[in-house]
Amino acid sequence: MNDNKNRIDEIDIIKALGIICMVAGHAGAPFTHFVYLFHIAIFFTASGYFFKQNSTTNYQTIKTAAFRKMKQLWLPFVVWNSVYILLHNFFIKINVYTDNPEILNYVSGELIGTKQYYEFAEIVKRILKSFLFSNAEQMYGASWFLRILLMVSLCFLFTDFILGKLIKRQRILGHAAVSIVLLAIGYILSVRNQSLFGFAQTASYYILYFMGLIFSIYKEKFSKWNWKYYLPILVITFIVLLILNRFGSISLNENKYENPLFLVICSFSGWLFLYSSAYFIKYIPWLKRLMLIIGKRTLPIVILHFLSFKFVAAIAVKSYNLPSFCMAAYPNLYGKRGLWWLAYVIVGVSFPVIASIIYEKIVRKYKNELRKAKA
Q1: Do 121 and 72 meet the contact criterion of CB atoms below 8 Å apart?
Q2: Which among 74, 128, 207, 372 counts the fewest CB atoms within 10 Å?
Q3: Mean of the pLDDT values across residues 2-19?
Q4: Is the pTM of this model over 0.90?
Q5: How many other C-beta atoms lie within 10 A of the C-beta of residue 83?
Q6: Which residues are paired to 62 by β-bridges?
Q7: Count of domains observed in the chain
Q8: Residue 165 confidence (pLDDT)
């Protein structure tokens, strides 16, 4: 979600690994519980990694940074959620959704259900609510973290501005203190099952964003390390995560985690685990190229992977001779049966990436033709 000129290979690879883990989780992969310990947390940390303190110098720089975040996170939600709202009735007709209650006789799960056709007034209401970052459509269900990431980013931005005015030379310590206080508040709200329109998640994950800033401050030191450092880090963090996987779980969407320390250790270990993995991936040319292609297009994957799943679900329907409305099973149909989850991952990642590349080429061609016409 950062500009091309600011891209860092390691971070793009980390984002690629994180988004693949997200898709795998939605696909019903057998290691879902493990990757849920850190897979979404790394996106908050990656965003904090690119935080620039010169963006809070004055009101103008704050305004510019805030609008940039709105463009990166709020605008895609509004546009694509509106698109999915407009397609809702069509999706029912082609079995992406279904209004047939018989689906419950064929597939089961807490997220399996029927959809009703939207009247015109309902369509308008839902599109208007999209402007408030509300009512995400089912095919855009993974977009929840865009809203929380925006809230965390803006909170961090304004907090940094205030700390710059009060304790300019000790802003990092100030952020550390704010992170601890907010994490405590977020955990209390978690225990009480209160979200407060996303404030609970924002409070809990502020520390993950701050963690990214800390990693960024020491990035020059990390860049001098070689495999003798990264190999033990990779092994140790993997073991730590395996152990923690046996003692608790994390669901950032619901703001559920065992305790604050558990969240911090899992997120910290997860980042180091993926960062170390990225170091070794860089030395495998074909894999590095693949990860960079994916890492630069995480947003299209968030937007399109559930819809892409339907291609695999259609094949599953044919394979098991099921009624066509079973394709509407959400988030997947038989993802936990055999290796179907792997097919979901491959399609859920590749289709959005290919669509994004085609779109980029069309836009590039259009801009070139427009530039020639003006010349």
Answers
A1: no
A2: 372
A3: 81
A4: yes
A5: 15
A6: none
A7: 1
A8: 87
